[in-house]
Amino acid sequence: MDDSQMEQFGKKVFFLYPHSVIQEELITHIIQNEFEVYLINDHRKLLPLLKKYNNSILFINIDERLKESEWEEYIQSIMNNEATKGVQIGILTYNEDKELARKYLMDLMVPGGYIQLKLGLKESTKIILKTLMANEAKGKRKFVRANCPKNIATEFNVQMAGSMYEGTIKDISSAGMAVYFNKSVDLPPRTELSQIQLKLRSRIVMVSGIVVGMREDQGHKMYVVLFNRFISTDAKQRISTFIYRTLQAEMQRELDNVK
């Protein structure tokens, strides 16, 4: 991927061996701020992925799995490898040892900072979000989008002119979606769709939106629908969670295929 594509699509954000507070609470705030986040639990299999996504951001929990010297060696191997030196590494820890912080910040000079989680959830979230913004993790992309796997139920229905129309979702973000209708329908731009029911895996989400475009896709009409900007917080959270879980599952498949 060249620099222009990286700038366009933003960067993947990896958390290696994330602390429980990351998995249970902090991750929600990061996802809702439209960053593309992945939780990884295998430092060896991650290395080939870092070569593939070599402009990514990696936060490492140094409190688990490896000894301090082993983590130092692992981090140096990423920073000194020509194929992965573009990865922006940050440290996450509960350790308050000032010498340890000095080593990573001054000696190793990790670009993603050294974050002490004992500062609390609010402060830690603030620091991580600030780090992601400083490293332009979003690129020019405003919203994270996920393609909807064909093996997972991602459907919708909407009532128009007294009739119920159903279809499948091709991809979705918290701002809108691309869809196919099961039966022929002609919807000009700016057609309003109220009370759209989305089925994202087993979760039902209610939204409304407006048709902003249509194009032919392999002989089928694909409509682009922009959600109403007054979408409820609950609906937005459910969509964001679906996107995160879908992308995480795709990344896990990549990890599982690493030899």
Structure description:
The structure is a single chain. The protein is about 35% helix and about 30% strand. It has about 260 residues and is of the alpha/beta class. Helix 2 (about 20-30) crosses helix 6 (about 120-135). Residues about 1-5 have low confidence and may be disordered.
List the helices and strands and how they pair.
Blueprint: H1 3-9, E1 12-16, H2 20-32, E2 36-40, H3 43-52, E3 57-61, H4 68-80, E4 88-93, H5 98-107, E5 114-116, H6 121-134, E6 146-147, E7 154-160, E8 163-172, E9 176-181, E10 192-200, E11 203-217, E12 220-227, H7 233-256
Parallel strand pairs: 1-2, 1-3, 3-4, 4-5
Antiparallel strand pairs: 6-8, 7-8, 7-10, 8-9, 9-12, 10-11, 11-12
Quickly list its features.
5-stranded parallel beta sheet, 259 residues, 6-stranded antiparallel barrel, 31% strand, disordered N terminus, single chain, alpha/beta, 7 helices
Rg for CA atoms? 21 Å
The helix-strand sequence is HEHEHEHEHEHEEEEEEEH
The poorly predicted ranges are 1-6
How much of the residues is beta strand, in percent?
A: 25-35%
Mean pLDDT: 92
Structure at a glance:
The protein is an alpha/beta fold and 259 residues long. The chain has 7 helices and 12 strands.
